[in-house]
Amino acid sequence: xxxxxxxxQYLAELDDIxxxxxxxxxxxxxGYWLNQFxxxxxxxxxxxxxxxxxxxxxxEWPMTEAQKQAVLDRDYNAALDEGGNIYFLAKIFSxxxxxxxxxVGTMTGMRAEDYQAMMIAGGRSPVGQRSKKEPx
Amino acid sequence: xxxxxxxxQYLAELDDIxxxxxxxxxxxxxGYWLNQFxxxxxxxxxxxxxxxxxxxxxxEWPMTEAQKQAVLDRDYNAALDEGGNIYFLAKIFSxxxxxxxxxVGTMTGMRAEDYQAMMIAGGRSPVGQRSKKEPx
Amino acid sequence: xxxxxxxxxxxxxxxLGAAMDNGRTQEPYWHNCFxxxxxxxxxxxxxxxxxxxxxxxDHATAFDMDFIPxxxxxxxxxxxxxxxxxxxxxxxxxxxxPDLAWHIAQSCILDEFDMTMVSRMDVDHxxxxxxxxxxxxxxxWPCRVVPLAVNVVTYPPPSGNRCYALGEAIARAxxxxxxxxxxQIWGTGGMSHQLQGPRAGLxxxxxxxxxxxxxxxxxxxxxxxxxxxxxxxxxxxxxxxVMWLIMRGALGKDVRAxxxxxxxxxxxxxxxxxxxEPVG
Amino acid sequence: xxxxxxxxxxxxxxxLGAAMDNGRTQEPYWHNCFxxxxxxxxxxxxxxxxxxxxxxxDHATAFDMDFIPxxxxxxxxxxxxxxxxxxxxxxxxxxxxPDLAWHIAQSCILDEFDMTMVSRMDVDHxxxxxxxxxxxxxxxWPCRVVPLAVNVVTYPPPSGNRCYALGEAIARAxxxxxxxxxxQIWGTGGMSHQLQGPRAGLxxxxxxxxxxxxxxxxxxxxxxxxxxxxxxxxxxxxxxxVMWLIMRGALGKDVRAxxxxxxxxxxxxxxxxxxxEPVG
Lengths: 136, 136, 280, 280
Ligand SMILES: [Fe+3]
Ligand SMILES: [Fe+3]
Known about the structure:
heterotetramer, A: mainly alpha, Protocatechuate 4,5-dioxygenase, Chain A, globular, C: Protocatechuate 4,5-dioxygenase, Chain B, binds fe (iii) ion
């Protein structure tokens, strides 16, 4: 291993990246039921039930109200804050028949066309985006 | 690792022990459905169904005829030859409400009382039982 | 800071659990076997560990041939006693310590151990029998438990050396855990037993006792015993003793034996038990 | 004797699979991206590998938070394309090679890698998109596949060094397999991408291209890149590149690049692709 072998130091570094929630076990534990709900959408019959009544379907899961609201609002930044992981959350936007590009763009605060245009132009530059403490 | 790091040589050594079938992956693959059948007996409702009609229950599983017969006969040596593992097979003799001591003894060719007496007297000596090639 | 204060090893024979569950420990067959755990039960009552890292193997209970993790650490909140075919043992639920478990898992991965993290599983006699032996029959277990399940069923299990090294990594992980916890580590399974085939019933008391000796005197010899030696000398299920080396590896260079017990037989098995304390 | 004849790396973006499945690869958005795989598709048709060891990660498909193996090797007979929420990709079943997979698993455990063996699982875009990129749209895949799923979702993933070392162990395992097989190893995922948060869309073409350079020129530098550098420089999902190091580790000391391709973007991602051949 290069880098820290102390886990606290390792985790502290991960928190230093701007605009990024690394899926640590702390987040994984917080998001457990949110993510399990997402997994359930891998079955077409569950997708149909969810589409037929989102709130009722969510109420079958022991999720927090904030988690349920993040799903209802399709507020993926809020869902990340509630312990969601993007690969789990992808089951929601796949159910919505929305692409990764469309869904991911919503988290940036950019308009969809602008986000797509930025990607076609080569994507977001890392300059100034590498560290919260001392941007470079 | 001490001992061989070459897997063929490692596996060949395991075959050199008298009266013993080490649960190698070759055996595990051969015994896959036999062992999965055994796992099903961890549910009381399945134990009841098995007891109510052993042959019919076995016929629900894609096991070989030799595997089914070994189960019906409670011939645990035959079950080992068919790829069974003792911890899986334990679900059968637990269903029969027979102890490990009773079930294991059946594989030795000894009468139950004799096997139990041997264990109380200190068990089977390893002398002469360590190797097929050159007993010591 | 969390500290590993002791290591305990013991066999985990199902019949030991059944004898306790059925109130038969005072029968002549069982009396001497159980007498050797009385010292430890009193000692544990005084030690009051906060958490036990309990190294055991799953016996085709939580894991079947479809999922075979070499090292699986239990990161769940609680674990139920499994139905192994005769109904679940009537013992309390096992309460996990997800904070410590995830900490150990993460630390061991940074240390280049390829852990599998498991959050939902039932636990079988391999885990519950040692709890009964050390703690008796309370309504709730007196401490939290971090299960560490080692594959010793499908070959090859991890080498003795790898097990010992994992113990060393667990010790580093515990030492870096900020909460002040009294942590024990237990290694279970063994000693001599063979549960299969015409050679079943094999017991090698001499080999077992040398193993008990060298947990104290020469652990570096033990970490290099090849699998084939366990099988030839102590029976096919004697391989479970590699799990004791995880416990031993976590205790550091020198240890003192506080208590030791060896009894033949429990069912098909030689019961071994030792309590170790790190020195210095 | 089995031989690892080549290593292939590529991104495994879901949109690449969707573009192929929906016949959109000639559209202006996709044309240049797919053009870079044409050389490889012709080369693979000539190479006719018997087996591909396909290193990928499961994206919350076969494994959820209840079961997180660091290194899971697929030992099953066949694997279905998973339903990730939009129905399964319309691709053939993936045919496994249980003989070779178990051989590698056993050998790597002797080599002190703590493998998890998995026999039943569905495989997601991480595995099927690379097959589509290299083999197009056949009715049956032209070779068997040994899936090797690496945890890069829940932190920490294995270190780059551990991944590289696993590749070296896989090479030893393949070299000791008695059957005469033409084996390739593929590393998938990456390159730059971040799929979450306000920083989403990050691309670092310079870093990615230095990584491609050093797969040939200085792989020992790559194995020591810490996780935090992947995240800072290439986005949170750029960490997937550690899986390329398993491929690289399996190729031995020196390699030659036969083909290389880099394109931005596919959806949110920088597509990187390289074909390597062991030298000497
Ligand atoms: Fe055991
Ligand atoms: Fe991926």
